[in-house]
Amino acid sequence: MKYWFPVSKMPQNGQDWPLVSDMVAKNERLIVFTSMKSKQKSEGIAYQWTYMVENQYGDGGMHAGSCPNRAESPPLNDKSKSLVLVNYFKTISNKQATCVDNSGHLIDMLHTCYGAAANRWANFVAVNYYKRSEGGGAFQATDTLNGRLLCGCNDVHACVAGSTSGACTA
C-alpha cells in the first residue's frame, strides 16, 4: 500500500498521466485496476473502464488487419480514456504457436490497434509466453511502443537522448 498511486490523483477525461519518474519520486508507483466498479468507491481500487480501452482478447483479437473492441470496454477510439491495452494471445494457450504469434504478427497488430484506438499507441501489451518468439518478440514490441510513445521513433533505441519530438538516430 505504501507505493499505491491513489485514485484521487488519476487523470480524468483522457488527460496525461504523470511521468513514472515523478511517481517513483513520490513513492506512488503502483497502479492497480479492477473490473468491478463498486471496488473503486469501497476499496479505492481504480475501475479500469474509467481509464482505459482494450481490444478483444483470445482468438477473436488475433485477426490480421482487425482490432476489435473488447465487449466490456469503451470503444477503442474513446479519447476520454487515456490508456490503451492491446491483448495478443490465443484463447487456448499454445506454447509452440506463440513463437510465431509474438514475432512480426504482434508488431503488425500493434500498428492495426494504433489506428483503431484513434492513432494512440498501446500503453500495455498482454501476451502469453513473453520469452518465446522468432525474432524480437514481446521485447521488440515493447521497444517499438516505447520509441513511438517517447520520441516518435520506430524503436526506443533510436531516440536521441532527451528528445520527445521525433529526433531519431539513423
Overview of the structural elements:
With 170 residues, this protein is of the alpha/beta class. It has a domain at 49-158. The protein is built from 5 helices and 5 strands. It has helices at 20-25, 38-43, 48-51, 95-116, 137-150, and strands spanning 33-34, 46-47, 52-54, 83-87, 124-126. The strands form 2 sheets. Strands 3-4-5 form a 3-stranded parallel sheet. A two-stranded parallel ribbon has the order 1-2. α4 (95-116) links the parallel β4 (83-87) and β5. The radius of gyration is 17 Å and the shape is globular. The model has no long low-confidence stretch (mean pLDDT 92). It holds the Pfam family PI-PLC_cat.
What is the strand tally?
5
Ranges with pLDDT <50 over ≥5 residues?
none
* Mean pLDDT score: 92
Spatial strand arrangement across the major sheet = 3-4-5
What best-fitting shape do the alpha-carbon axes yield?
globular
Structural class by sheet pairing and helices: alpha/beta
Continuous helix count: 5
Order of secondary-structure elements:
HEHEHEEHEH
Major sheet attributes: 3 strands, parallel
Sheet-strand content, in percent, reads 5-15%
- Helical fraction equals 25-40%
What does the radius of gyration come to?
17 Å
**Head-to-tail CA distance between termini:** 43 Å
